[in-house]
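Section 5: illustrative case.
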């Protein structure tokens, strides 16, 4: 299971009431992960919601990304738009 780094896990470094959407990778958003295939998933954070976008080779990794994002302090809703693409040849 992925765990966050020792840094504080908060939904956004800006005021969530400001109404803007912040875009960052899952690692920038939640800290280090246990699997390199989920490090480039993009997180679009708006207030207490996060939308995950990107591709992974397995359904397990899609769920791992969702679980990682859902444990960030201040997040109440995760929209998981990550695609499972098992045939991609460049997976690590």
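Designed sequence:
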């Amino acid at each position: 299971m992925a765990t966050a780094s020792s840094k504080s896990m908060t939904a956004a470094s800006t005021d969530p009431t400001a109404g803007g959407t912040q875009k960052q990778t899952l690692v920038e958003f939640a800290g280090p992960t246990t699997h390199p295939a989920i490090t480039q998933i993009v997180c679009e954070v708006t207030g207490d919601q996060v939308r995950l976008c990107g591709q992974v080779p397995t359904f397990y990794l899609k769920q791992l990304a969702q679980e990682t994002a859902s444990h960030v302090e201040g997040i109440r809703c995760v929209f998981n738009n990550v695609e499972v693409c098992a045939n991609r040849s460049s997976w690590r």
